[in-house]
Amino acid sequence: QVHVVESGGGLVQEGGSLRLSCVASGRSVGHMAWYRQVPGKQRELVAAITSGGLTDYSDFAQGRFTISRDNAKNTAWLQMNNLKPEDTAVYYCAATIRRFPSSRLDSRNYPYWGQGTQVTVSS
């Protein structure tokens, strides 16, 4: 079993930055990803990273957010810069033991999820 814990959310002004952290414990994981969800809307992918360092970003995250990881620590980070009010959401970290690259972008391949961390961007 894998336990996932996120941290680093908070309140920030428009244009500011936040860095989210995600630690997976229990066993070594493969892909890790960040998702976000706003009440009443579907959860959406923010960014994903494979154990080999291959990264993917949603259009809204490209150029502003950076996902990274440390395999030895089973930890991933999401650096978010130039935040906008529309980035306000609960951000979730997800992990899987899968390592085949083609599985990295489907949320159904992530069985382990954190409890979420709130990010609020004020205008």
> What is the residue-averaged pLDDT?
96
Main sheet summary: 7 strands, mixed
**Helix content estimate:** under 10%
Instruction: Provide the gyration radius in Å.
Output: 13 Å
Q: Strand percentage, roughly?
A: over 45%
Low-confidence stretches: none
Class by alpha and beta content: mainly beta
Shape, per Cα inertia axes: globular
Distance between the termini: 40 Å
Order of helices and strands: EEEEEEEEEEE
Q: Strand tally, please?
A: 11
- Helix run count: 0
Which features would summarize this protein structure in a list?
seven-stranded mixed beta sheet, 11 strands, mainly beta, 0% helix, four-stranded antiparallel beta sheet, 123 residues
What does this structure look like?
The protein has 123 residues and is mostly beta strands. 0% of the residues lie in helices and 48% in strands. It has no helices and eleven strands. Strands 2, 4, 5, 6, 9, 10 and 11 form a seven-stranded mixed beta sheet that branches. The radius of gyration is 13 Å and the shape is globular. The chain starts with a strand and ends with a strand.
What is shown here, in short?
The chain is an all-beta fold.
Outline the fold blueprint:
Elements: E1 3-7, E2 10-13, E3 18-25, E4 32-37, E5 44-49, E6 55-57, E7 65-70, E8 75-80, E9 89-95, E10 112-113, E11 117-122
Parallel strand pairs: 2-11
Antiparallel strand pairs: 1-3, 3-8, 4-5, 4-9, 5-6, 7-8, 9-10, 9-11
